[in-house]
């Protein structure tokens, strides 16, 4: 226990020596959302101090996330049997233990945060210490006990898939350690966008600044509009068909692919108003005998990723079948690559000149 305490103290000192952007990444992000406090975790990485049992439980109880990984690994023992597996951002070690139970020869879990020390205890009490090695440190700086691995597993996704994500670290591990024809779990990710009606909350979030105890705070409206909201969106609020804006093949994609631009159209399903665009992502494990897939969209069960809402400057009035021409431009922030700068352009052309609208909105996820 004394050695563990010394290790944790050393790890926390190392975290404090990172530059500001990296410290920001490895710290837990706590955001207050519409109706409740949402604790944000990415890829198994927790705070640089010990997280509470409640926060760990919230992640593990996300059944869509956890059961999808469990099914992809445990139901494919023929893939994992006698393989060396790397778990990038292992957190409490749940994916590492799934891999060990699936028959892996050995599993290496890597995480920067001090949760790794508690993960070692969890692995030990489950009798898997001989099968799992857990390493505290940055993937780019550590040395693995094996020169190559057969399979990489990672829960690397962030809000809007890419915000605060660990994908660049997974790609580094792929290029450095994965054997030729090795496997990645999951190996495909896709982002979708749709238009939604959300007038009540837009009035609450954006209209609030028009009158603050009798004062005009409208200069803050632009700031409020530039901040995407992470929250759950009900399916009944979705006005348009979804459009695919990004697909990532983890065997082929590069860090440069995380900056992208995509034109897309949104077709109205019914007569309604559109106040915002909503984005979500789907994840695929295609290496499985039968592909395992899960979605974080409004049409399916709740996940801790929820959805990401981008409020528009205009309220669009659409009729069924009408098309909104859009484009989405995403790039990592120059100062902190794990933050995102996003631009959305939209244009509604109708025969009714009173309903024509177009605009450009800039957003920052930071």
UniProtKB/TrEMBL annotation:
Q: Give the top-rank taxon of the lineage listed in the UniProt record for this protein.
A: Eukaryota
Provide the species name. Podospora anserina (strain S / ATCC MYA-4624 / DSM 980 / FGSC 10383) (Pleurage anserina)
Q: Which Pfam families match?
A: Methyltransf_25, PRMT_C
Q: Which GO terms describe its biological process?
A: methylation
What is the recorded name of this protein? Answer: type I protein arginine methyltransferase
InterPro entries from the UniProt entry: Arg_MeTrfase, Methyltransf_25, PRMT_dom, SAM-dependent_MTases_sf
Q: Recorded E.C. number(s)?
A: 2.1.1.319
Q: What class of enzyme is it?
A: transferase
Q: Which GO terms describe its molecular function?
A: histone methyltransferase activity; protein-arginine omega-N asymmetric methyltransferase activity
Keyword hit for Methyltransferase: yes
| Reaction equation(s) it catalyzes | L-arginyl-[protein] + S-adenosyl-L-methionine = N(omega)-methyl-L-arginyl-[protein] + S-adenosyl-L-homocysteine + H(+)
**Keywords on this record?**
Methyltransferase, S-adenosyl-L-methionine, Transferase
Q: Which GO terms describe its cellular component?
A: nucleus
Q: Extract the PROSITE patterns matched here.
A: SAM_MT_PRMT
Q: Which residues form the Methyltransferase domain?
A: 85-159
**Locate the Protein arginine N-methyltransferase domain: which residues?**
187-349
For the keyword Transcription, the answer is no
């Amino acid at each position: 226990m004394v050695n563990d305490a010394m290790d944790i103290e050393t790890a926390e000192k190392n975290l404090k020596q990172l530059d500001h952007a990296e410290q920001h990444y490895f710290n837990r992000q706590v955001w207050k959302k519409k109706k409740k406090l949402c604790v944000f975790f990415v890829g198994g990485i927790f705070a640089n101090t010990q997280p509470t049992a409640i926060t760990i439980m919230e992640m593990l109880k996300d059944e869509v996330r956890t059961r999808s990984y469990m099914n992809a690994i445990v139901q494919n023992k023929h893939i994992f049997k006698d393989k060396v597996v790397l778990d990038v951002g292992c957190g409490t070690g749940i994916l590492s233990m799934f891999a060990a139970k699936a028959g892996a020869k050995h599993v290496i879990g890597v995480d920067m945060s001090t949760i790794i020390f508690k993960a070692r205890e969890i692995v030990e009490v489950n009798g898997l210490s001989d099968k799992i090695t857990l390493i505290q440190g940055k993937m780019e700086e550590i040395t693995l006990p094996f020169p190559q691995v057969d399979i990489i597993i990672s829960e690397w996704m962030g809000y809007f898939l890419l915000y605060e994500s660990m994908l660049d670290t997974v790609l580094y591990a792929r290029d450095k350690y994965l054997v030729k024809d090795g496997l990645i779990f999951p190996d495909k990710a896709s982002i979708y966008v749709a238009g939604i009606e959300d007038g009540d909350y837009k009035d609450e979030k954006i209209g609030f600044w028009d009158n603050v105890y009798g004062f005009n705070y409208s200069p803050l409206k632009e700031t409020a509009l530039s901040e995407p909201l992470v929250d759950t969106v009900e399916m009944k609020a979705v006005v348009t068909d979804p459009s695919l804006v990004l697909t990532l093949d983890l065997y082929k994609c590069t860090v440069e692919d995380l900056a992208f631009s995509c034109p897309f159209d949104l077709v109205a399903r019914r007569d309604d108003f559109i106040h915002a665009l909503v984005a979500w992502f789907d994840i695929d494990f295609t290496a499985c005998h039968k592909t395992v897939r899960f979605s974080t969209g409004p049409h399916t069960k709740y996940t801790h990723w929820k959805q990401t809402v981008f409020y528009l400057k205009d309220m669009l009035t659409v009729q069924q079948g009408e098309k909104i021409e859009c484009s989405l431009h995403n790039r990592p922030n120059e100062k902190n690559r794990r933050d995102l700068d996003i631009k959305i352009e939209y244009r509604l052309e109708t025969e009714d000149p009173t309903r024509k609208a177009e605009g450009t909105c800039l957003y920052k996820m930071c």
